[in-house]
Design brief:
It contains 12 helices and 9 strands. It is an alpha+beta fold.
């Protein structure tokens, strides 16, 4: 099986990719640091893929910090245009552009230009927003925790049902309800800030419906048992959302393998984390004695071992598709976050092995050790929340400028069309 998965990953790396999402900066007019003889009509920014406007687009005079925009910024295909006031005076100016890609990834950048021959090179007075925002991190963490705990609880219920039967219904339904509500709240926070019409926004809209339907089914499951199956199905279905909304469908990624690896990674993490949480919550409320608890935990332990193997293999595969040269592990913020996640994963392996030993020895320390394992897994989920906001190393912005200082023909036509439509 391991060899088959390795071949599968290698094949994915060799497959051409056609899906698009992350938009990379191609060039700007004017160039950053340009000294112009005449006042430009607009600042034009071209990308290699379709983009939508983000918040924070601005152009200001460096001396006064006053806006010199003649009209709001606009996006047409791959080009963002920031129209400027006519006849700018001699001096330095700074432009900040902000866009959103199909996967919801936000990009900002700044450039400075000067008007007046002989002027010294200008410096930007505006700054781009930080790549990782604290509010985004909170809602993403809530979203991932809800998805992972919900799906893991559903799988744990399937594993424990042959031993515990109907006694599982109420505690499993309660945990499913709490996790699906958490997923709904986290998804709502992400959707409120998502650019309308992007793939990211469409996936979140579907996830909102699924999580709400699942939470409603879980709330009614103690009264009507068949709804517990519906709630579990909704929880498992939500694990597809990160793969469909995230980096795996970016341009340059293996078109089939990357999302499948992402889905396997998410499902495996759910079995591990959700199963641990369910073990602490469900077993004290559903098992009659210590024998039943140990029997269920042994079944879960075997499933968790398989999940850890899948998690490791799929994680290595996704790292290979997201990163280019090896040095990007320590030269990009995405690589650093990936290293932090890997270090936590190694620690989890040690804790998991220790817990398995405690289980076999029937140690009273088992419960506390499992709680510690859950804390470490939750820390990994926080790192995942950071990773999803960072541009992968392979997709690092190309900061080289066009030696002609002009847009490509396609981009120039789009920019001209925008400016012509703004003429009185």
């Amino acid at each position: 099986m391991a060899r088959a998965l390795a071949v599968f990953v290698l094949a994915g790396l060799l497959c051409p990719a056609v899906a698009s999402a992350h938009a990379r900066l191609v060039r700007t007019v004017p160039d950053d640091g340009a000294v112009l003889a005449r006042s430009p009509r607009a600042v034009v920014v071209e990308f290699d893929d379709t983009v939508r406007l983000g918040g924070g687009n601005a152009v200001v005079a460096n001396a006064t910090r006053h806006s010199i925009l003649a009209a709001p910024a606009s996006a047409a295909g791959r080009v963002v245009t920031l129209p400027l006031e006519r006849r700018l005076g001699r001096g330095d100016y700074t432009a900040r552009w902000s866009v959103v890609s199909e996967d919801g990834h936000r990009e900002q950048g700044v450039l400075a230009f000067a008007v007046g021959p002989g002027s010294p090179p200008p410096h930007a007075v505006l700054t781009p927003a930080p790549a990782v925002r604290s509010l985004d991190l909170v809602v993403r963490t809530l979203y991932y925790l809800g998805v992972l705990v919900g799906a893991g609880t559903a799988v744990f219920g399937l594993l424990a049902r042959p031993l515990l039967g109907a006694r599982l219904r109420r505690p499993v339904a309660g945990l499913l309800f709490a996790s699906l509500v958490a997923a709904f709240v986290g998804t709502s926070g992400l959707a409120a800030d998502a650019a309308s019409g992007t793939r990211f926004a469409r996936v979140l809209e579907a996830a909102l419906i699924v999580s709400l339907a699942g939470a409603a089914a879980a709330a009614l499951a103690p009264v009507y048992a068949p709804l517990l199956v519906a709630a579990g199905a909704c929880a498992i279905a939500l694990t597809a959302a990160p793969a469909l909304a995230g980096h795996s469908l970016d341009r340059g990624q293996p078109r089939v393998v990357a999302p499948l690896l992402d889905l396997a990674h998410t499902l495996a993490a759910a079995v591990w984390l959700g199963g641990l949480v369910a073990a602490l919550w469900v077993l004290p409320r559903a098992a009659r004695d210590a024998w039943e608890r140990r029997a269920v935990l042994r079944r879960f332990s075997s499933a968790a071992l398989v999940a850890v193997c899948v998690l490791a293999v799929s994680g290595i595969g996704r790292a290979a598709t997201e990163l280019g040269p090896v040095h990007e592990l320590w030269t990009t913020s995405y690589g650093w976050a990936l290293l932090a996640k890997s270090a936590a994963f190694v620690a989890l392996l040690a804790v998991g092995a220790f817990n398995r030993t405690l289980l076999e020895r029937r140690s009273p320390l088992f419960t506390r050790s499992v709680a510690a394992e859950i804390v470490v897994v939750a820390a990994v989920v926080v790192v995942v929340g950071i990773l999803t906001q960072l541009r992968p190393g392979r997709e690092a912005p190309d900061r080289r400028v066009d030696p002609t200082g002009r847009l490509g023909q396609h981009g120039l036509q789009e920019a001209r069309g925008v400016l012509e439509r703004r003429q009185p």
